[in-house]
Amino acid sequence: MTVRVGVIGTGMIGQDHIRRLTEVVTGATVTAVTDLDAARAAEVAATVGAAVLPDGAELVNSPDVDAVLVTSWGPTHAEHVLNAIAAGKPVFCEKPLATTAEDCLRIVEAERAHGSRLVQVGFMRRFDPGYRQMKEVLAAGTLGAPLMVHCAHRNPTVPDAYHSAMAAQDTAVHEIDVLRWLLDDEIVSAQVVTPRATSKRFAHLKDPQIMIFETVSGVRIDLEVFVNCQYGYDIQCEVVGEDGLVRLPDPAAVNVRTAAAGHATAVMQDWKVRFAEAFDTEFREWIASVATGAEPTGPSAWDGYAATVITDAAVHSLESDGTVVSADMKPRPAFYGGAA
Ligand SMILES: NC(=O)c1ccc[n+]([C@@H]2O[C@H](COP(=O)([O-])OP(=O)(O)OC[C@H]3O[C@@H](n4cnc5c(N)ncnc54)[C@H](O)[C@@H]3O)[C@@H](O)[C@H]2O)c1
Ligand SMILES: O[C@H]1[C@H](O)[C@@H](O)[C@H](O)[C@@H](O)[C@H]1O
Q1: What residue stretches are annotated with the Gfo/Idh/MocA-like oxidoreductase N-terminal domain (predicted)?
Q2: What number is the average pLDDT over the span 24-39?
């Protein structure tokens, strides 16, 4: 079966996912798109022979759409995801699932009322080969109990519109999701402190930020978020256990030796390149689940809810001079499996 996908939002990542669905993943075709910017939607639709529909509700309910991809702006996600659940169609929603915990819970409740999982959230790091190898090592128990995690999330720079809360909402949210999954543990509190700020930042931006999370079992996670580090896109993660540690590998890259540069290995500059393989695998697995009528196995609506509660706690801490803020979540329903 070829899965006919309708795409809501044909901006930067929407276009990248349309390319992926069309050129990389087998078994999928993009049959319909919509965007507030009708000219942009028409231009993108023409590249893949899709229909342009007037809005998200029509797209979700189109008989030519089997599954929905939401790549519009975050505050609009909840409406489109709820429409897809009401239509009984699988929906892949880019992060965030919704911008408020209340909206995430409405989605969780709608999905539970539907009776089976329809929603997958776009936390692509779970599909990265390096993180998957870390997960295997941790699951095998080779390291003993995990005690600490040290992470860094560095971007060379960010656009002017990026503000201090986005360090948690837009950037750290990737670690928040992948660490809940890696450790199979829930985050219960967040604290954000700010070291000396880089002079390369915009005046309105607190950068870098150091985030400290604690989990139910007492693991401490420290995460440096530095979004104007200048030198590259650099993602580091090291889990330290009682008997050893496991570290996220950098993607393979050649080492060049010259008199001028000494030993040199290029530093990646772009998250789209760093996580290209993760995005491809994420969509291959999502399309495979839709094609076979199976429930998606990627990040769930509950994971989307948890991520929003934890990022809210981090933003609250940032805005209250680094107080420790608890991440108050509802109990996890059996529908979404055991512990996170
Ligand atoms: N997983 C990741 O690493 C990752 C990376 C980048 C962006 N994202 C997420 O993807 C989403 C889109 O980001 P982007 O960078 O592509 O933004 P963008 O501004 O480039 O594109 C968004 C598009 O959606 C359209 N749009 C907005 N609301 C709409 C609505 N209700 N109906 C139809 N069209 C609508 C806009 O006109 C725009 O063309 C965001 O939620 C962002 O957080 C995820
Ligand atoms: O939207 C992007 C994207 O999610 C990247 O993966 C992250 O590194 C950036 O900080 C963020 O702004």
Answers
A1: 3-123
A2: 98
